[in-house]
Amino acid sequence: MTPRTVAVVAPYYPPKIGGVERYAEQVARAVADDPALTPVVITTRPTGLRTLVGTQDGVTVVRLGAWARISNTPVSPLWPLQVRYWLRRTGAEVVNAHAPVPGLADIAVLVAGRRETVLTYHAGSMVKGGPADRLTDRVLTWYERHVLPRVFARAGTLVAVSPVSLASGHPRAVEISPGVDVERFTPGDPPSTRARTLVYVGRMDRSSAWKGVEVLVRAFAEADLPDGALLRLVGGGDALPDHLALAERLGVADRVEATGELGGDELVRAVRSAAVLVLPSLTEAESFGMSLIEAMACGTPVVGSAIGGIPHVVEDGVQGLLVPPGDAKALAAACRTLLSDPRLADRMGAAGRDRAVDRYAWPALTARYRRIFRGDGG
After folding, report:
1. CATH of range 4-179+361-374; options 3.40.605.10, 1.10.260.40, 3.30.1330.30, 3.40.50.2000
2. Tens digit of pLDDT for each residue in 144-171?
3. Which of the residues 45, 105, 205, 224 has the least number of beta carbons within 10 Å of its own beta carbon?
């Protein structure tokens, strides 16, 4: 029997680091491991206009050029023709598109023709709500009200990554959360014995101010933390210099470290060595928070905002602490609690590991995708 070809379509793909990127990569790898399926990835290039075709971890990856980037969104008027061409050339019978970045995923669903389509939607509303974001918010509001429902209607199956995904509750939606490699992200020393380091992992683009990194820097500056406490920012983006400048103005630049983007074993070491991992997101756009489950798998207690999908991942007072979004004082207090109470930190770290293994190990999650792609149901 000839394997079915599954086209995994995502706006970005590793080596670019991010939650959607890692999710799409895990789906493609799971397809590659199934003898009844064959994967191909269609994504975009970080720079350049020509299409590049290569192999990554045994998976064919087609990288389309982008003519421009609007906020964090790559765009090109050629994509409808290019996606249709590559679906035909690769013999794709199933299309698994990943959003919320408007553009490539929408196009893949709309040009798929009679192919089976599975749309994985990774966010709640992307509307930011800030005074500086009014024009962007008007565009996003129009998109979510008028374009997205049509894309949802065209998709054969919808996958919501959490209960706050805009796909959640749709009659044809199933929920498949992000996962973590629990064999790779493993506990190190007990949190109480680690260096007193708060770690943030994620992008730091100005278009992603909803990640709340500015609030984290302010909380770190005003918190009465134990001696030697450090803040480590893991990731990249055009807002990183802004955060470092803020740390300088607040007098804590000597205790804030920026590592740049980390992947592989370097990322594991950064998460495993953290005393606390912090995700201070501000809006419903944070539909899950993959860095949280990576930390939990490493036995690292977490502090997150009580917004979006975070409360569905972290039980307040069990695997970590939740605080109101945007509340720097509450965020500072939660971090101080975990750095100052070794028994609590160790207990929450152990509970996080148990939850990661029980609920978020990748094999059980990607097995559901394989069943969908084979036509066996999710």
Report:
1. 3.40.50.2000
2. 899 999 999 999 999 999 999 999 989 8
3. 224
